[in-house]
Amino acid sequence: MMEHEVNMMERVQKVIANAGVTSRRKAEKLIEEGRVKVNGKVIRELGVKVSPQKDTVEVDGIPLDKEEPVYFLFYKPKQVISAVQDDRGRKVVTDYFKEVEQRIFPVGRLDYETSGLLLLTNDGEFANLMMHPKNKINKTYIAKVKGKPGKDELKALQRGLPIEGKKTAPAKARIKSANIKTNSSIVELVIHEGRNQQVRKMFDAIGHPVMKLKREKYSFLTLENLKPGDKRPLKPIEVKRLIDSAVT
């Protein structure tokens, strides 16, 4: 019994990061600044371990994991940062959730110029499950690209190609339409990875840069009946289905 309890102990900064409050590195800074309490006492040492189930961890006086979990589907517009704050004062996704009392954060990210489907939650465990590469959750993107990729180039996307020294996982790619007049085409790409600006880099690698990019689907979820800036809560059955798809 004691051995099991020891195994459940985790460093405070990891518990804070898993709760979705901030990154582990920033959590370490919060600890050093004396802004973190464990069971009512301020801690300043990074090596402190706690039990997420038994100990009360507070950041700036707010206890972790005391909120009811919430889950949202959001249609992110272009030129919005997938973060809870931006040091340059740009618009962030949580600006669209002012009425939500819970401390929510985006699950993964879409880059500044990319629009489309993004999940937000205050459930760190759910977010980690969605983002872990081994769970292979499909994300469907629609890209307007320069020119028209040929068969060999589409096959390269499908097989995987080296991006910054690491090969991408197999993907699905198909051309939906092409416009000779504008020398552009619309390509659907389905990937399950989430590397930084991966879709743009994949198209750059085959010589067809992205002009416009939108994420249309996340697993089975779509943007149906939503406009940029719109959101809706996920239904409990949708949350369960996402979790089931990640753990099976």
Automatic annotation (TrEMBL):
Residues 10-68 form the RNA-binding S4 domain. PROSITE patterns: PSI_RSU (PS01149), S4 (PS50889). Its EC number is 5.4.99.-. It is an enzyme of class 5 (isomerase). InterPro entries: PsdUridine_s_RsuA/RluB/E/F_cat, PsdUridine_synth_cat_dom_sf, PsdUridine_synth_RsuA/RluA, PsdUridine_synth_RsuA/RluB/E/F, PsdUridine_synth_RsuA/RluB_CS, RsuA_PseudoU_synthase, S4_RNA-bd, S4_RNA-bd_sf. Keywords: Isomerase, RNA-binding. It holds the Pfam family S4. One of its GO terms (molecular function) is rRNA pseudouridine synthase activity. GO terms for biological process: enzyme-directed rRNA pseudouridine synthesis. It comes from the Bacteria. SUPFAM superfamilies: Alpha-L RNA-binding motif (SSF55174), Pseudouridine synthase (SSF55120). Belongs to the pseudouridine synthase RsuA family. This is Pseudouridine synthase.
